[in-house]
Automatic annotation (TrEMBL):
Keywords: 4Fe-4S, Cytoplasm, Disulfide bond, DNA-binding, Iron, Iron-sulfur, Metal-binding, Transcription, Transcription regulation. Its cofactor is [4Fe-4S] cluster. It is found in: Cytoplasm. PANTHER family: TRANSCRIPTIONAL REGULATOR WHIB, TRANSCRIPTIONAL REGULATOR WHID-RELATED. The keyword Transcription regulation applies. Belongs to the WhiB family. It holds the Pfam family Whib. It comes from Aquipuribacter hungaricus. This is Transcriptional regulator WhiB.
Length: 83
């Protein structure tokens, strides 16, 4: 249970607390080189915090794993298009 804020209201859980990947096997999100990303991406498709996850990965230069439904290679391509 989350502690109450100073104003007495319950805090809103952070995006990581609402992420579907937190309820699944983390190994799927960090496959070995050449391993399949299919299972992780399947989870990401229906995750309500997918955009926040991707923003976090891009903002923190995450180089490994599936974040926001994208692999490291896909995130690199996305960053190049934005720049």
């Amino acid at each position: 249970m989350l502690p109450l804020r100073r104003d007495g209201a319950a805090p809103t859980p952070g995006w990581k607390d609402r992420a579907l990947c937190a309820e699944t096997d983390p190994e799927a999100f960090f496959p070995e080189k050449g391993g399949s990303t299919r299972e992780a991406k399947k989870v990401c498709v229906s995750c309500e915090v997918r955009a926040e996850c991707l923003d976090f990965a891009l903002g923190n230069d995450e180089r490994f794993g599936i974040w926001g439904g994208l692999s490291e290679r896909e995130r690199r391509r996305l960053k190049k298009r934005v720049v």
